[in-house]
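Allow me, if you will, to draw on your knowledge of protein folds for a short while. I have a record of one protein: its chain in single-letter code and its fold written as discrete structure tokens. Could you please explain, in whatever detail you think fit, how the structure tokens follow from the sequence? The record follows directly beneath this note:
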Amino acid sequence: MVGAPNVMRSRTGYAELVACGLVWGSVGVFVKKASASAPTIVFFRLLIGFAAIIAWFAVRRRLSALRTGPRPALLVSAGLLLAAHWAMFFEAYKRLDVAPTILIVYLGPVLVALGAPLVLGEPLERRTFVSLALSVAGIALIAVPQADRLDRAGLALAVGAGLSFAALVLVAKKLTGIYDPQAVLAWQTGVATIALSPALLSARASEIAASAPWLVTLGLVHTGAAGILYFRGLSAVKAQHVSILVYLEPATAVLYAWAFLRETPTPLTLLGGALILAAGLLVVLARPEVGAPAGLPEPRDPRPAREALP
């Protein structure tokens, strides 16, 4: 019966990560429903999420884990990257349908695999080039047939969000070798909140008030609660399985957009998205550390090797 608690915790961890994927998949719907501008939505998501995360640290009496430590400049850069990533991501949501936006952003894991040799000194694997080819083909299937109808700035923003997604993971990979991953998340959201505070200068009070339910939910549920739940799940689930479960986000995002926004993806969009997701899974199955959700720090497994679950 010694292994029974571990088995139960593992099952709970899977449930927590599935819940995160289902919750994060609905972000596009909330962004579309909110009448505020993309930078304003991101600012309030960050502000409310940051407050929730700090409260969580305070309740657990772990505020000491938030010390700047030896790499404060890298912590700040991670926050600035998160601000840029979410600002581009949410603006792309405003300009494009949910399906092409989220599917293009999920180029991130492939780009991480390409950047890892330069940033982390890891070997470049042959399958990375196969993944890149699949991803480019997927983007072409999404963008080219609809080039006359898709917002070109929106496409550029989605690609930019994918690039910044990759940069976030690479920077966070360095940080989580030094800091508690949850502390990295707290610093990311705090710095990003300050970086996007100028968005309030052009925000209208009426739009903020009308968007309040969506903003509060994005902050408390999608950022604070789901972020904490994600890290709880990490401690009980194999990293490779985490990377695969993360792909619930783009899959459910397309379904949520169809159900709640009446955005019906074209067959070519679905085919292109399938190629991008296949490319990402090809990478994460071999390199499970590159599949973290957009905007969250890359985890390190805090358990000793002898405690790893089967």
Q: What stands out?
A: The chain has one domain: 14-294. Residues 112 and 166 are 5 Å apart (CA to CA). The mean pLDDT is 82. Residues 14-294 form one domain.
